[in-house]
Specification:
alpha/beta, 6 helices
Length: 134
Amino acid sequence: CSPAGRKAGCPAVDEQRIFLFGYSDGASVGVQLATNSFFRGGVFAAVGGIGDIGKVSEKLQGKPIWIFHSADDRVLPVQGTDVLVEALRRVSGPEVLRYTRYDHDQEGVTGRLQGHSVGITASKLPEIYDWMLA
């Protein structure tokens, strides 16, 4: 919160606990933003294109990241997320990288958006909030 924001009543923020939560295109942008030292880590669901995966994974090395995707995603194919996760695994250990890959849409969505509701699924999990605040 900026000085002007604090004056207006913005609460104090623990700068060591600023996480991103992104879904779909927001996940792709979130991954890019997480490379900035300002953010501690993030939760990303249904990640799309993020550019140079090697460079991105190096910048994310050691940051806590939890990625979600569904194998039946008809909007953003899970294979792109699989490649990102493998790159992140090469530079970070399992204590900082988590990957939840569902076999099918957990929300029961069908049709052209089948499998793409994983952000909704992730946001309902109490564990992610405990994990972010740990």
